[in-house]
Specification:
alpha+beta, globular, five-stranded antiparallel β-sheet, 74 residues, 1 helix, single chain, SH3 type barrels, 18% helix
Length: 74
């Protein structure tokens, strides 16, 4: 079931990007714990850019493709 982005969830996600907090993201059955970097617009939707400390790379997570999202420590 796709994730429903509520105004409250979007506020938490925006706070996470401002404070560089960790975010748990599940997409297609795989869970990632990334440091929130920024929110961007891709096409007609928004995406979270997260830093994966284990590999040192930035990953792009279109919000429409997410199964679950949780801000850690907020």
């Amino acid at each position: 079931m796709p994730l429903r982005i509520t105004p409250q969830l979007m506020d938490r996600l925006e706070q996470a990007t401002r404070k560089s907090l960790r975010v748990s993201v599940t997409r297609r059955g795989t869970e990632y714990v990334v440091t929130a970097r920024r929110l961007v617009t891709i096409g007609r939707g928004e995406a979270l850019i997260g830093f994966l400390p284990m590999t040192g790379e930035e990953l792009t997570f279109p919000l429409a493709e997410l199964d679950h999202l949780d801000v850690i420590g907020l």
